[in-house]
Amino acid sequence: MWVEKYRPKRLEEVVNQKEVILHVKQFLKNPTTMPHLIFAGPPGTGKTTVALCMANELFGNRWRELILGLNASDERGLPMVRGRIKTFARLGTFGDFPFRLVVLDECDQITADAQTALRRIMEENSKTCRFILICNYSSKIIEPIQSRCAIFRFSNLDKGNVANYLRFIGEKEGLELSDDGFDVLWEFCGGDLRRAINTLQASAVLGNTVTEESVLKVVGRASPKDVMAMLNLAMSGSFVEAREKLYELMIKYGLSGTDIIRQIHREILGINLPEEEKMRLVNLVGEYDFRLAEGANEDIQLSALLAQLALSKKRGSREQDV
Amino acid sequence: MSKVMWVEKYRPKSVSEVIGNEKAKSQFLNWLKNWRIGTKPVLLYGPPGVGKTTLVRVAAREFGYAIVEMNASDFRTEEKVMRIAGRAATESSLDRFLTDVKGSLVFMDEVDGIFGKEDEGGISAILRLSKVARAPVVLVANNPWDPKLRYLRGSCQMTRFYGIRIPTLVSFLRRICQAEGVLAEEAALRGIVEKVEGDVRSAVNDLQAFAEGRKVLRLSDIERLATRDRQYNIFDTLKALFSAKTYWQAEKALRGSEIDHDLLFQTIHDNLPLQFMNSEELAKAYNALSWADIFFGRVNRTQNWGLLSYGLEQMTAGVALATKGEYHYAQYRFPPSKITFMGQTTSGRKLRERICARIGSKCHVSRRVANTDFLPFINFIFENNTELASKIACWLNLEEDLIEYLTEAKA
């Protein structure tokens, strides 16, 4: 996958994020002064990449022994913290290496209990072990941890950054990316470079010139249009079928409730409805999104939302009849 | 598909059509025939669904009585019992002169359902009533040994009903099948009957659930009945719940159910669109379920079990009261279709998870991100370029079955 092939190996190669790189380099000059770090920012902006580059520069070819990379959204509870992290942090270091490094990705997902346990481990082993906590929102990290870390915010990549990097890959792969092709790609991926590279690679499968058409094919395949189909079913009164679609999205395709509700939000704005009705729906979607965030049952809440949306279409069409 | 419950459609129209329990039947009919002022009330008791209520109804009609009925969901305070039943029993009804009926018959169903403070005095009112009654008083109970009923037992004629015997039930079901134009295997009917413990109502409900809309009913069709205990109970619970017209009735439906709350919640959720065809009612009912879910979540988070009842009330009464219309029968589904669906897709999901784990460790992302941000693109590559696809498969170290899944996952 190009995402890995073209992942920067050295800090200089990282796209943008100049502020962060500058500071990190300072730390690397005198590693013992480096505090624990929090990398916060939107997806696909280079957080994991910077952490991996640092490991590379600190440990060279011994990095595999000295770094523990864990993905918090896969195993996010206390057992992970008490088990693997604690054991690794206590190993101590060897040779000239100043410390071991724990890189915890998607820390937004770690439960509060586990974070508290984590905080203690960070403190007890701070001489021989450093932590890099990666997350989208630093506010999801408990304050006692935040106050022990230097927080770095990764900014969104702009259109020029993404274009340059994609063209760079294009050159290496003997690929041409047309301007309109890039525009569609930018619209779909925004500043998420990971998504952009994946889209580029999939589009390139269709030919050496990546055009609007080929990108649209990939985008059409990769964005769950089933969500739209589900909405249409619900609004035309086929609730049972709409709900079956929902199960399919959640169970067969493994989408989370939040993934689906965000997609609904996007789709609603495109539906042919009176403007104020759209606003009512946006409110509704927001409310159910909040309920999900509170930890409610996804399948119940989304079904309830669908039932509400079905109602709205009725009202909307009645207004149009008048 | 018809919306008539077979239980109603095939409810006996005359005493002779009531099946089984010959001894109890003749005891009751004799009591009614010989009734005069001062005769003890009769207490019919026995398991649910064997025809006690039906017998009283058809017998009253045949003997020319008008039924004054009360059941457990009414408030049975003494005052209320006296007001409704008392008048019918002690005053000679004007109806008697205006119509052909001889008079009234006071009928109290589910007397063992008298619970708690609300019903205080109900029992003693029934007792006093029966002493002065100038109309026959018929009481029905499932469990006459309830301590609350001890005074009643002494002052009533006790008539016991048993579960209907298997051959009797089978031939009853066969008659229904003939009337509905369903060709049923003997073994299939036996299969249904053997699991209902002599309960006609459940047998007919189960039969409808399996046979409605079919031409032929085979033993294999009813294999799902394996989970019968829960199943027949859950159908009854759903019916009681969805047909509830008051908060108390809905409450009672929940209390009378042995189904685990979580499973019941899922089942209500699953059957909601089958019951509420009107989209406004559906939205209202779902709103109640959504709130129930939120309360359950709060209970889980705070471990404050006192909050549980708010959730349960939304789940039952909140749902039931979403409609003001008449209850109509729906062909309920169990187990919930989501569980069935999950069962059908288990193997696919497992493969998918394994692929995502592979992507995750190679590309430094979580399985969730692998699923949303990688898999769709990899799918696209597998569909369009086998050469690159096989390179990626090598790179990710995918086994045969995973590659097969990706190649075939056209969806």
Task: Describe it.
- The complex is a heterodimer of chains A (322) and B (411).
- Chain A is an alpha/beta fold and 322 residues long.
- Chain A folds into three domains: 2-153, P-loop containing nucleotide triphosphate hydrolases (Rossmann fold), CATH 3.40.50; 160-222, Helicase, Ruva Protein, domain 3; 226-313, Zinc Finger, Delta Prime, domain 3.
- Chain A has 16 helices and seven strands.
- In chain A, strands 2-3-4-1-5 form a five-stranded parallel beta sheet.
- The longest helix of chain A is centred in the C-terminal third of the chain and has 24 residues, at 298-321.
- The N and C termini of chain A lie far apart (55 Å).
- In chain A, 43% of the residues are buried.
- The longest helix of chain B has 27 residues, at 337-363.
- In chain B, strands 2-3-4-1-5 form a five-stranded parallel beta sheet, sandwiched between helices.
- The radius of gyration of chain B is 28 Å and the shape is elongated.
- Helix content of chain B is 58%, strand content 7%.
- Chain B has four domains: 21-160, Rossmann fold, CATH 3.40.50; 166-231, Helicase, Ruva Protein, domain 3; 240-320, no CATH class; 338-408.
- Chains A and B meet through helix 10, helix 11, helix 13 and helix 16 of A and helix 13, helix 14, helix 16, helix 17 and helix 18 of B.
